Amino acid sequence: MEMIALPVAAVLVALALLHAYWGTGGLWPGSSRDTLAAQVFGGPLGTPMPSVTACYAVAGLLILASWLVLAASGLLSAAGWPTGLIRSGAFGVAGVFVLRGGLGYALPRLTSGNHTFARLNRAIYSPLCLGLGALTLLSLLG
User: Fold this and answer.
1) pLDDT at residue number 41
2) How far is 70 from 86, CA to CA, in rounded Å?
3) Contact 43/113 with Cβ under 8 angstroms?
4) Burial of 48 by CB count in 10 Å (0-12 exposed, 13-18 middle, 19+ buried)?
């Protein structure tokens, strides 16, 4: 279902750009590396942000995920790639997001400790992951 796949892919690209921005040293929505880490990574105060390499790796994986979602829906060419592999990859994307969203409510590290992160995780990160996973599944099954 193209009508679902396109906005899902757009959100994935936006998230990829945000991770790349962090990889370049960007601080939004924080005001320092410490406040950014507290808001988007969690852990006790002073927990360092993931490395530049990790930020870029996540950005790359999010771009790959967006391509898989679009290719599985027929909106982008997957010339040379087996349809089954593309669809399996897109189902994998859905599974990863559903798993992350669900674990965001279940794992103590994601639900307690750093109160800023725990609050943002419950209000934004986990629901976003669950929504992306569910919409990806819907685009594949629709």
Assistant:
1) 86
2) 10
3) yes
4) exposed
Q: Are 29 and 39 spatial neighbours (Cβ–Cβ below 8 Å)?
A: yes
Please report which helix (H) or strand (E) contains residue 142, including its range: none
Q: What is the pTM of this model?
A: 0.92
Token representation of residue 94: 């859905």
b/e map 84-118, b = 16+ CB within 10 Å: eebbebbbebbebbbebbeebeeeeebbeebeebb
* Helix/strand/coil percentages in the chain, nearest 5: 75, 0, 25
Angle among Cα 81, 133, 118 to the nearest 5 degrees reads 135
